Here is the input.
Amino acid sequence: MINQTEQPARPRSRADENNVCLIGVEGAGKSTCAGLIFLTALDIANTPSSKATLLIEEKTLPIRTIADTLRKGYFPPSTPLGESFEAFLSLKFKQRVRTLAVNIGITDIAGETLREMMDYIAAGRFEMPDADRIQDANRFVLDARSFLMVVDLQRLILYRKADSQDAEFSRFIDLLMRWKRFNKRSPRTKCIGLVFTKYDTVKNMLASDENVSLDSDNGRHDFMNKFMPQTSLSLRGKATGRVINTFYSSVDLETDEDGRSSGKIRLIPGKRWPAYSVKEYTRMISWLRYVLR
Here is the structure.
């Protein structure tokens, strides 16, 4: 069952403390990830045995626009600097005694804005500037109960020596924990997930050159230690006591007879639905449902 509303997302309250903040550097695929989370939640809500209902609230760019773009076989555009996208999904599971709500607040803010906010915290400036883009990012980070950090896996692997994502996410985790401790009204971070996007572009390379796969717990652990050691250390240190998990995101692309990609998303035959790593996204939502219960 789906309940869709057109009004802007309401201000967060203690009742929404299970919301999840989706963040990442520019070009990492946050908008695509947000759209696939929505499509997975929609699929769950349309499955009668799940006993789930989905509430959608939209602000600025509608999340359904992103989902419709994916269902047409195209990737959504990146969020321009100075603009933000925010939506709110509430997936409610009917149980014997009570109803469990997994509230996923999704924000897609330009990576430059996120860095600017982190620079203020690092400099010990505990009052954010009045710029709307900074205030929006600050509000969402402080209200968040959990975080999904989106990592551009293609960039991380192909430009390993030049890529700074490991250092950036490590820095963000350290500063985030400091900032939330300073703001006493900010709810304690309950869980942190890492989402590795564009896995389809480097999966074979990782398997052949590095003997690493993200399809198992051991493989994901080995990957973190090898490719994101600083982030792994921060998660074991500053984020101690939080539930940590990793996921990958992949989207199948159309190819010609010679195996060359067209850049367009392959759609499932007979269904206007993108071919993507639906099991991983289902696992992600199941994990959130478990840790936020």
